[in-house]
Amino acid sequence: MQQTISKELKAQMRAERLALRDAIPPETRIEKSLAMAEHAGEAVAFDPGTIISGFMPIRSEADIRPLMARFEARGARLCVPAILDRQSIVFRELLRSAPLVDTGFGTAGPGKEATVLDPEIMLVPLSVFDDRGHRIGYGAGHYDRAIGRLRQKGMHPKLIGIAFDCQEVAHVPDEPHDISLDAILTESGLRFFASWIG
Fold this sequence. Notes:
28% of the residues lie in helices and 24% in strands. The protein has 198 residues and is α/β, with parallel strands linked by helices. The strands form 3 sheets. It has an 8-stranded mixed β-sheet, sandwiched between helices. A two-stranded antiparallel ribbon has the order 4-5. A two-stranded antiparallel sheet has the order 8-9. The longest helix is centred in the first third of the chain and has 21 residues.
């Protein structure tokens, strides 16, 4: 019973927060996205060659391409998710010269010929977050399973949630198996819940 209540509550929170995100005018979303690049472009610590996964924006998501460009200029290897099936996503290397194709769920990215990478830092889209680093995704569980697979390989990717301020709530209902974020990036700045960021 408790799980059903939690699932229904998460669905309600997701719908409410995504409606608020959808209501942000496109030109304002661009300004907020550029502010994110300013806040985190230099503040996230990583060595050259670090593999960082981003994403191409869909619907009313923040456009983190300016942030990804900043990371690339600092020597990051970039990749973006491609949906293989209902259960699985992989992260394909994003190179400037490579054409983009439909990669599922309304997203675009490199084609099947691109190198599949295991990200060390992940920029994670989400629908809802709280100030403890708990998040609600879009309901498909793709990122949770991808993170689980990386952990099975002995990797522990650092997770930076990407959202607008309007997507924050006081408390996300969480369960013991839920994966929390290391940081959250909004138009107001980079807040971290782990010490590695700065």
